[in-house]
């Protein structure tokens, strides 16, 4: 599987831990979700209704060589925040072509399927699908 280097690093981090430690790592990612930049606080962010918790995203593809991704999820939704943070850490500032080439099911490599519900994983898949849709629309 070919992933942008930052996303491959995240997948490697998850591969290095087992069982409940994967959940701890996911919660660490939740704590690291970058805040929205001030100019996006009043912007119309795209909701991702497939997520079990409220999640909104913004894709800035003005520079296709350096796509900016921004996510908003409440602190009381740590799993959703963690999944969004994985995408932020792995795909923010990457070229549009590299993001579009990410396999839709890359998240299976994280090894979270036995620890979190399939609905939550589908939420991550929906986030990636919306990012890709916006990139295709911007091209």
UniProtKB/TrEMBL annotation:
InterPro entries: Fe-S_metab-assoc_dom. Coiled coil: none annotated. SUPFAM superfamilies: SufE/NifU (SSF82649). It holds the Pfam family SufE. It comes from the Bacteria. Residues 12-134 form the Fe-S metabolism associated domain. Belongs to the SufE family. This is Putative SufE-like protein.
